Amino acid sequence: MAKSASVQVLGSWASPFSNRVQLALKLKSVEYELVEEAFYVSKSDRLVKANPVYQKIPVLIHDEKPVCESLVIVEYIDEAWTGKGPSILPSDPYDRAIARFWAGYIDEKWFPTMKQLETASGDEEKFAVVGKVLEGFALLEEAFAKCSKGKAFFGGDEVGYLDIALGCFLGWAERFLSHDVAKDILPDALKILEFFGKVQAARAAAATTAAE
Amino acid sequence: MASDKVKLLGAWQSPYAMRARIALQMKSVEYEYEEEDLLAAKSDLLLKSNPIYKKVPVLIHAHRPVSESLVILQYIDEVWAPGPAILPADPYDRAIARFWAAYIDDKWFLHLRTSVLSEGQEAKSAAEESAEGLVLLEEAFTMCSKGQKFFGGERIGYLDIVLGSFLGWIRVTEQRANSSLIDESKTPKLFEWAQHFCADVAVKDVMHQTDKLFEFAKLLAAKHKSSRET
């Protein structure tokens, strides 16, 4: 029997954006009900009602009030459960600005470029897209160096906003690595492997810590 | 930290740069303004302080650059916290404000942009879509304002600044398309809001002069047309 939860997530295990919300709730130890939406099949009435503008997951419903857009939801979770669990965003305004900047970059530039790989046709186009993806990784690597200040995560000692914003794409990264085009450009694929090896190890550590 | 030197790289045509100026004005922050000529080559300072996007506005505070207007607005709100609040206090209201700001910048603006740059039927359809988006924003206004003058309530706030900064461009589009986007009958609340917003002390000195912007729009549209034809 479904318990009546004051926190519901309309989402899906398959969606990185939905995963962001779940990661944030987990960090804050907030109990919630995940309502699995078969978003790739059809839009449920429930979803359309909760998110009439975009009709997309994830949607957080807190005390019957919906919040949409994954990054907006993550900030909401940080603010609504302030003082419970670790802070998701950094405390310093400049660090917060940097985190928000890179999260925006990930959603507006980096992820769309990754997606282009699926539709790129012909070697020339594929090569150009991979080039852009690698440039993106290099930028994110730089961002990581600056934000982490030598520690394990973008957020420092703890998993934070930017870790969540990027880490949710690890599933995609694995697919990218096994994509033919990445295999063809082996040295560069190895570089990506290295980068994500780091992030993956950090993610595993976070999961262990969160479970404790 | 709040007393460190502040510099803003902007451009008179840019609604995004206007947002930063409004926010700094609201917080009574003294700053040095540097104009970037959008028709000339990008300045060294711009390339250095915003290497990723190479766009205005960039806020440089204590020699550290902050880019992306929505990020800048929140930064200003947080650094100069004692001044009038830009974002609402309640987490849910903040989420709603951020949601609509993202809608304005990621979805709605694309239609406005198309209507400015293109011509004929394409421009007309884009203007219509902009108008439809404003009907949605009228609903958002009802929800956010709770009967008061602004999205932010009694005083201008985040969402007022995000949408209000486009008023100059909205007027230009209305002139070019010869139809209204903020319509007294279809979007009566926004119609009234626009007047209040432009009269606000933090806005009136930086709001666009429509005729100047109109001329610039013609230039942009011509450039756009010729780049499509080559």
TrEMBL record, chain A:
Its EC number is 2.5.1.18. InterPro entries: Glutathione-S-Trfase_C-like, Glutathione-S-Trfase_C_sf, Glutathione_S-Trfase, Glutathione_S-Trfase_N, GST_C_Tau, Omega/Tau-like, Thioredoxin-like_sf. Residues 5-85 form the GST N-terminal domain. GO terms for molecular function: glutathione transferase activity. Keywords: Cytoplasm, Transferase. Its main location: cytoplasm. It is found in: Cytoplasm, Cytosol. It holds the Pfam family GST_N. GO terms for biological process: glutathione metabolic process. It catalyses: RX + glutathione = an S-substituted glutathione + a halide anion + H(+). Is involved in the conjugation of reduced glutathione to a wide number of exogenous and endogenous hydrophobic electrophiles. Belongs to the GST superfamily. Tau family. This is Glutathione S-transferase. It comes from Sesamum angustifolium.
Automatic annotation (TrEMBL), chain B:
Coiled coil: none annotated. One of its GO terms (molecular function) is glutathione transferase activity. The keyword Transmembrane does not apply. Its EC number is 2.5.1.18. It is an enzyme of class 2 (transferase). Residues 4-84 form the GST N-terminal domain. It holds the Pfam family GST_N. Belongs to the GST superfamily. Tau family. PANTHER family: GLUTATHIONE S-TRANSFERASE U17, GLUTATHIONE S-TRANSFERASE, GST, SUPERFAMILY, GST DOMAIN CONTAINING. This is glutathione transferase. It comes from Sesamum angustifolium.
